[in-house]
Amino acid sequence: MASDSGSTVMIEKEFPKSEKRKTNFDVIIIGGGPAGYTSGIYCSRARHETLILTGVLPGGQLVNTTEVENYPGFEHGVMGPDLMITMRKQTERMGAKIIDDEVIDVDFRHKPFKILTASEEYECKAVIIATGASPRKLGIAGEQTYGGKGVSYCATCDGPFFRNQEIVVVGGGDSAIEEATFLTKFGKKVHVIHRKDQLRASKVMQERAFSNPKIEMHWNTVVSDISGDGKVQSVILSDVKSNVKTSLSVGAVFVAIGHEPNTKVFKDRVELDEQGYIKLKDHTKTSIQGVFAAGDVHDHRYRQAITAAGFGCMAAIDVDRYLTESK
Length: 327
What we know:
This protein is an alpha/beta fold. The protein has helices spanning 34-45, 80-93, 155-158, 174-183, 203-210, 305-326, and strands spanning 2-4, 7-9, 22-30, 50-53, 67-68, 78-79, 97-99, 103-107, 113-117, 121-129, 133-135, 151-152, 166-170, 189-193, 215-218, 221-228, 232-239, 245-249, 252-255, 259-261, 291-293. The longest helix has 22 residues, at 305-326. The radius of gyration is 24 Å and the shape is elongated.
């Protein structure tokens, strides 16, 4: 500050741009769903300094789920977001540091491994990738509005909520037909909506569906709109050839057109399969020694919160053994 002729003049000082602060941990877990939080609990209890980078939307797919009836320990069920909050608090109580930041790059070429976010650069001795997978969306009106209110991406999770109702399943592959068959246990009728005139599902799955009196096929058809009053009540079906639209009263829409593993940042960093899922070499080990994976990021068969948590436990135990043997 300088004084001249009775006036005050502020002199601006230039500060050098600060470099990204490096923070060292024993284990960094990338992902904040059931697999990530469970890994954090086990790693912290094993006395490893643990960081969880949850991403910008922590909680995984369960934050978009209403009531969860099939997770053990909750006699009357639990809301998906509440389950994730409880898991997070438990993980923090065990000593893990949790930061809601998104990983934009990783360097697994040398140890310590480097994990880069938009604001920080971290280093660690071991990594658990638990970024999960995201269901492919239809991208139509009403889909987001009725998410958790009749629109679902998991028949095993939500099927029992729609007993004695008519249900729509969108898709034509094995997953769609498997979900449709499963849903006949609850719904009075299941409408399979497929944009082509034949299924992609295996012959066995097709035969199962065609012989089930509760399943009705809608060929060359797409769902163009979903509507209701607080919950799904109807869909608009469009014929892809004639563009003729019809309305169908239903209680739920199950979208089964596949999942996308959240592995974009790991491309060319660890070995992925043709679908983009992380390939495991031995239990939870990836192609890089010291890098492990847990949950839907590698598991495209079960895709359940409980199995993701189980894989999180397994990965943390494998990390503990790896770090112990590396000393």
